[in-house]
Amino acid sequence: MKCxxxxxxxxxxxxxxxxxxxxPDFLEFFRNQVREAIRKYRMFTSDEPILVAVSGGKDxxxxxxxxxxxxxxxxxxxLDLGIFDYSVESRAKCEAFAxxxxxxxxxxxxxxxxxxxxxxxxxxTRRPPCSGCGLSKRYLMNRVALDExxxxxxxxxxxxxxxxxxxxxxxxxxxxxxxxxxxxxxxxHPKLVRRVKPLYRLSERETAAYAFLRKIDYIVEECPFAVxxxxxxxxxxxxxxxxxxxGAKHNFxxxxxxxxxxxxxxxxxxxxxxxxxCGQVTTGTLCAFCKLADQVKRSI
Length: 300
Ligand code: Q46
Ligand code: ZN
Known about the structure:
Blueprint (H helix, E strand, L loop, with lengths): L11 E3 L4 E3 L1 H18 L9 E5 L3 H12 L4 E7 L3 H18 L3 E5 H5 L3 H8 L3 H20 L3 E3 L4 H13 L12 E2 L8 E3 L7 H10 L16 H15 L3 H17 L8 E2 L6 E2 L5 H12 L1
Parallel strand pairs: 3-4, 3-6, 4-5, 6-8
Antiparallel strand pairs: 1-2, 7-8, 9-10
Helix pairs in contact: 1-8, 2-8, 5-6, 5-11, 7-9, 7-10
Bound molecules: Fe4 H S5 and zinc ion.
């Protein structure tokens, strides 16, 4: 197998691109995909500071690595979910990465912000752990970005994540989720920062290869609550399709973004208010985060 670019021995074959690359040319291919994502969706300009949400996993640390390499001004944000050893270890990976690269890392603890860590929120709400966890993460990313004066939050979602989310939304025809499925969500209120996913063009296998070749020390274990999550079942289904037909995931996601998404965009925008308690954006009187914090407070 030869590198498509230079003819050297290839280390990685990318069937969906019908190509193989040597290590340096793969790294360049990877960075080019990130550059293309940033350019195509005008995610941020070269002088805008960026909050990079990092979990300690391969995707978010690979993203941070590329953005630092490209010369962007970045601040990392690690949200400590309080999920046993997983959180202890993943926080250590983020701190080590930040120290090695000389970049700032902010840490916020869900236990402090909501009143209890994710495993307790799960029992209090009697809902799947990812529900309270996801809500808290989205809320805190936005609030920290606002507090720090950073106009945009970048997350490490990759092509597999995005295709699996889209698959789930289509399976249940979640009409409110479909228009929000995008590599870049604009700010629709002064208290909402932009959210972008610069890795949406790269597969999980590709981010793993990038992290390996760049010698990034990341947490390999998944969150213990990820086991049995429907998103994992969706990923497995899509992987089987991908095996049978390379490029299936890419076509599914990119086809949606280019051809179908505009049709799902709601004609009238929902009216946004500021939460009576915390001032963050909500469609009601109290935001979902404050309601969750109340529920936690009442039951512990
Ligand atoms: S951290 Fe939180 Fe994920 Fe764990 S509880 Fe679910 S949402 S799986 S990315
Ligand atoms: Zn609130």
